[in-house]
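Hi team,

Below is the intake form for Protein-L-isoaspartate O-methyltransferase from Actinomadura graeca. Please confirm the fields before the structure is written into the shared record.

FORM ID: S-0412
PROTEIN: Protein-L-isoaspartate O-methyltransferase
ORGANISM: Actinomadura graeca
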Amino acid sequence: MARRDPMFHARVEALADYLADAGVLTDPRWRAALHEVPRGRFVPPRAYAASFLPDEPDRVIDRAADRAGWLNAVYRNFSIVTQRDDGATDPADTTGTPTCSLSCPHIAMQYLELLDLDDHHRMLEIGTGTGWTAAMLAWRLGGRNVVTVEVDKDLAEAAREHVKRVEQDPQVVTGDGAGGHPPRAPYDRVHVTCGVRDIPRAWIAQTRPGGQIVLPYMPVTGAGGHQLRLDVIDPCNTTAVGRFTGGGGFMMLRSQRTIPPGDPDTAQETTREMARAGDQGTTRMDPRLIAQADAGAQLAIAALVPGLSVGTGWTKTPAGEWAYTATLTTGDAWAHCQAPRGADEYTVHQHGDRRLWDEAASAYRWWLGKGRPDRGRYGITITHDRQTLWLDQPSTTVG
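The structure came back. Fields below:
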């Protein structure tokens, strides 16, 4: 078998050492899983490798043309894009939008270790993708204890073939992961490999009291993600509470996927249309503070400006100057702020039933007024009818 090859062993050991040095691989059982569930069995012959290593470029990988280069990407800290535009575009074509990837080992291992597994645990995974993490979980818990749900039927079928290559393969279900998988409930753990803005209540309902849900919380479209571990706390399975433990984003759950504002660098006409349609004002606040917010500020903005999407780029002002531009949208409302270099004030256009720039700027000032709390001070409570962010303790809601 491939995992008995000395070169394979050396590659996996080097990857495991890298993850251990980064502090995300502490459990020796997960180190063993890296050997027993070879990552390369879940990577297509041709794909696109996105690097998370310094001085390493993103690149197309092709096993037939450059096997060594393919292996170097597969067994190092690269995310491997395996699908674009829901299968309509070659994974190696960077003009397409990534819609499935094999997550980089660093972030995958962070989430797996955050599950804090015991041997008897029954596991639900949302977002099978290539099947690699599902197979890792099956090796760790036994295939009978793992069910993984994938909405894309082609990805699900490919994952079924992939997981058959490991000794204990999990059940792969084709369906919308937002609904979980009731026939196998209750679960001790739920492992979510796609970003979510609104946490589905079905996941809580299908988790045992005292069970945990680990997920990437991504409340602002176009921004980063936040690792969240939720504890289901009541016997009726309607309430969960948890804290944010770090950063880490994924592709969005498809039923919650929205299109973020386009890059203004390629949307100059849209910029002119916004300028004509919106109410014009000025601000002295740099739009980068909103669009590139610190993780703690981003959570405050997400709580106080729900449903927000953010896009950034460079556009030309009516005077012909290049300006950093942030576009905020939700529903029919939008705001558009241009910040030319060296300007004392910046132009803002707003339109719709909400003044998004005013809301976002106010949320940022709220964060400053609280002393710039970092991500680790925030948590979230989910009940049957609401999702509430809080600061320091559940009784202190944001806002």
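SUMMARY LINE: The chain has eleven helices and 18 strands.

Thanks, M.
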